[in-house]
Amino acid sequence: MKKAIAILGLTTALAGASQAGAVTVTLACGTVGQELQLCKEGAARWAKKTGNTVKIFESPNLTNDRLGLYQQQLAAKSSDIDVYQLDVIWPGLLSQHFVDLKGKIPASEVNTHFKGIVAANTVGGKLVSMPWFTDAGLLYYRTDLLKKYGYNAPPKTWAEMATMARKIQSGEQKTNKGFAGFVFQGKNYEGLTCNALEWVSSFGGGTIVDDSGKVTINNAKAALALDTAAGWIRDISPRGVTTYGEEEARGIFQSGNAAFMRNWPYAWALGQSDDSKVKGKIGVAPLPAGVGGKPAATLGGWNLGVSQYSKNQAAAIDLVRYLTGPAEQKIRAIEGAYNPTITTLYQDKAILAKNPFFGSLYSVFTNAVARPSGPTKSKYNQVSQAFSTAVSSVLNGNTKGQAAVAKLNTDLARIKGRGW
């Protein structure tokens, strides 16, 4: 890879696009939806402005696969990647490998971002990464089909959603056998942790591990939430939903084959694209509430950090500063429906014109439920894997909710016993 970088730098210099002292910075970009294209375009604008070169490293789609690859690179102290795209749950796990951006990026700029997200990126007083875009789970629905089947508003509860999905699915399957009532991320990976945390929290079942580090998952409300979700399989959700990630669910919904979908904000812009079968027929609402609970959306989002092992740290920090700034965040919001982390952009008329739900669902993004990466620190990945595996077992009919949360309680206690 170093040879490729050298060639790239030479090519740029020969083309006259470089300036004295110009360097090549390698940026790891995500590839879900429009991520890769927007990442390339933003990097190209910075390169043009500075005379430097950016080499793009395409990261795996699934979060778990991306983390595994990053950990290998960082453990080897590799300088191949300068800027990493980090999930909001990773700073505690990876903080020792990243440059402290506090003081290197002006506090006046850092303070324009949501305080909670800056806090999530700060470990032991060290600013591990800068907020790039935030996420929260949303309910997408077909406005035309709700109207067709006599519904005036999206569902407020999971029970209402199931009833509506069942009726719409029954009607649509008369001419489209593959039509589904509800699709979500049911594959056993981090996406299932996000979905299931929303179910559990919306039923009043807590957040797996509370802020003090106490394991709280073993309760009747959490068990009921998982059993409720399992009841959707082969009813309003296809059997294959247990193999879906974000893109599989989006593909089905966007092709006109589902009434409801749980996904992140990025799916909005793609659903409104010219090749979408549901363009102009999509509504977005908060996720439903469970029995006796209230709506819950898992906090997601991605950030940019500079590797301690980068040989071009100054340029890499400048790239992070540029990409996470207001101009780039505005472009990404308008073109890709990526939620800004800069508070003032939620009053930007151009952004709201393209993404009207950014304004109406502002409270969903600012009150999203955090995964317990803070209290579980370096053990979060083990906690999440144990949780998603337990949930997957319930969804696949191998166990019931109460047995699953009881076993999970034991498994998490064992992980906690090794210290978190």
TrEMBL record:
Gene3D superfamilies in the record: Periplasmic binding protein-like II (3.40.190.10)
Name of the protein described by the UniProt record: Putative sugar ABC transporter, periplasmic component
UniProt keyword annotation of Transport present: yes
Cleaved signal peptide residues: 1-22
Organism: Deinococcus deserti (strain DSM 17065 / CIP 109153 / LMG 22923 / VCD115)
Entry keywords, A to Z: Signal, Transport
InterPro entries (UniProt xref): Bact_solute-bd_prot1, SBP
Pfam families (alphabetical): SBP_bac_1
